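Table S2 (continued). Query chain:
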Amino acid sequence: MQVTTADLWAPAPGTLLTWEVTAAGAGTPVPLTLNQRNHLAGAAVGAPTVWLAAAFDVDGPVDAYALGRAWRAFVGRHSSLQVESALRGGTPAAYRHDPGTLAWAVTEAGRPRTVEETRVRLHELLDERCRPFGYPAFLPAAISRPDRSTIVLAMDHLHCDAYSLTVVVDEVAELYAAYAGGHDRPALPRAGCFVTSAEREHDHPVRVWHDDDRLRGWHDFLRARAFELPTFPLPLGVSPGERRPQATVVRRVADASVTERVSERARTQGASTYAATLAVLAAALHESGGPERLDVLVPVGTRDDAADRRAVGWFTTTVPLSVAADVSDAGLAAAGAAVRAGVRLGEVPLDQVLDSLPAPLVQTRADVFMVSWLDYRHLPGAARMRERAAHHVSAATLADDLQLWLSRTDDGIAVRARFPETPEARQTVGDLLDRLGARLHEVAEPVLAG
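Corresponding output:
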């Protein structure tokens, strides 16, 4: 899976097709999760559209009829795509539509002649159609070409997380291949129901005691920072409250061989590859003039069973991590312990964390300093991602902090960096990623020497 953004995506031109989806009636009220409520609260006051898109290639021109059947079957499987959000008296609300009542129609949306025209036209369509309020907040689309075509499903963040995009590629590809080949609907693994998860969160919320060690973990992290959320500690060329158009850098920082050696060394210390990479990032940041510890927020998954791992939805929460700039064996072991402790903090609902804080939370930037990790080798459809030319494409919006998406595939470790477009930020982030790559190679060397 190639992780990129709309400003760097380079889809070849062709005939653009989009599917209009119309819902009959108001739908049935359903609860929203905390993630969704916070997302919609931001959208209600003018936050930029935040969408994620899954894209993959198929041979030949698009069979619009077969793809339309695939879209209908896919939306029928995934409850998150049946949900409409709206503002009722200034408060976000949600309604679920019966997929059998949805009307579908395919439309030709243009025939751009160049990669740039295609990128611009798609970006316009996705920004327009993937807004969180109203239905649908997603856009099924395709770029039809005589030899090889691209299928796209873009969704407002309301509907999905990054993991969900692998489910989209795997299932829509299977559905389309079956229908285009004149076959019946293929047998797919049972998919979990995101709406049921939201209802469970609403009706039976997890409650923890005020002296729970997981709450103390949150409090200790924030107290050490005077209750200020983490920010990237090096200059990015923006003042507090100032946001700039987003800049993006995508690069590989370790090939498959280096990554496997880092992973092997981490395993000997009881740590994951992610934990080792965080320790290396902390060391690279310290060498760049940053602090001796990396304080950062990280998303962790909340998919609890096999069915949830086949579901489209926003199955993540956020936890804090503090990792020392130490890539010795002891440092890697400590990073592993820090990640395991951080994952436990994700068992406490964020609204309970916020309600329990002994002091107000301080947020000096609109964004938070975040480092995400996904090992795509273990996600749905992993074995066929390369042949399908699968892409995770995110909207390009505004930024005032650094956010990193680390991804592991059979090719190694890649990073997508999102930051404000300033010369200082480009220099700072570029230097940091250079150091990250170099230090990953150094961490791998003892294994190679052994």
